[in-house]
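Colleagues,

For the teaching module next term, I've prepared a clean inverse folding example: a structure given as tokens, and then the sequence designed for it. I'd like students to try predicting residues themselves before seeing the answer, so please don't circulate the second half yet.
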């Protein structure tokens, strides 16, 4: 598996080098994106047990054409941070895309988000109240299938970051299981502190793994996914047990500063 990815990656590099001067900008961009996502998948394949992990291509601020190029490689999971941008892209792009909402979720936007039929998951449920609001939103927009949710945990305990405290994680999960029939508790998610040394064990990943263990021990029969790892540390996250990595910059390139 890894071997074939590398062969493809090398083939792409060679053909891009040979033909770049005759290609349009759009064609060059397409090949660049194919190269990038192939490289990420090749890197993922070097991690034992990676097969279970899902790659979410984080496409915030990137034009629909970029997403289409990645879509055409067979990729289906995309992540967006802003409700308006997600709504626009989900209307424009193919309906078999599986969208992940990974931005801060405001209560007054829950209905808009829940109404997107091909929304795969909301990864940023950060309180019991938000879970209730989202559950109600699913009812009022008559969502056909229960909506997968991840409970966001503020593993680095930073003021500026959303998410429940690691100590409250189990309680929020239990609440969703017991009181939110329109939601499916899919797992836990963390962003973590920026600039951690990727060569050392990451305390955010360790903390999320710990939250998973504690919560599962209190909720027999539950198997929680772990959404952790971004461009700078997704391999490390996979090694730590991530089942859902969210990669933006490494696939789409740098984003414009807000
Ligand atoms: C933007 C974003 C990502 C992707 O970050 P990169 O470092 O560009 O890979 C992942 N997760 C969340 C929650 C984000 O907001």
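(Answer key — instructors only)
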């Amino acid at each position: 598996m890894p071997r074939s990815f590398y062969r493809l990656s090398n083939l792409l590099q060679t053909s891009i080098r040979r033909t770049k001067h005759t290609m349009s900008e759009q064609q060059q961009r397409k090949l660049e994106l194919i190269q990038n996502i192939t490289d990420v998948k090749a890197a993922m394949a070097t991690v034992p047990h990676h097969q279970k992990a899902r790659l979410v291509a984080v496409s915030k601020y990137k034009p629909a054409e970029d997403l289409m190029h990645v879509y055409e490689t067979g990729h289906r999971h995309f992540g967006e941070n802003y409700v308006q941008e997600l709504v626009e892209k989900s209307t424009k792009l193919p309906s078999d895309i599986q969208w992940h909402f990974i931005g801060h979720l405001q209560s007054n936007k829950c209905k808009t988000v829940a109404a997107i039929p091909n929304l795969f998951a909301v990864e940023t449920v950060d309180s019991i109240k938000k879970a209730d609001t989202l559950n109600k939103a699913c009812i009022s927009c008559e969502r056909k299938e229960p909506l997968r949710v991840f409970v966001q945990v503020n593993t680095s305990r930073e003021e500026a970051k959303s998410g429940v405290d690691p100590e409250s994680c189990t309680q929020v999960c239990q609440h969703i299981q017991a009181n939110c029939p329109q939601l499916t508790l899919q797992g836990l998610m963390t962003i973590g502190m920026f600039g951690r040394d990727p060569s050392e064990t990451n305390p955010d990943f360790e903390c999320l793994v710990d939250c998973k263990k504690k919560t599962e021990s209190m909720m027999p029969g539950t198997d929680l996914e772990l959404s952790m790892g971004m461009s700078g540390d997704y391999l490390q996250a996979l090694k730590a047990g991530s089942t859902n990595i969210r990669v933006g910059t490494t696939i789409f390139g740098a984003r414009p500063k807000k």
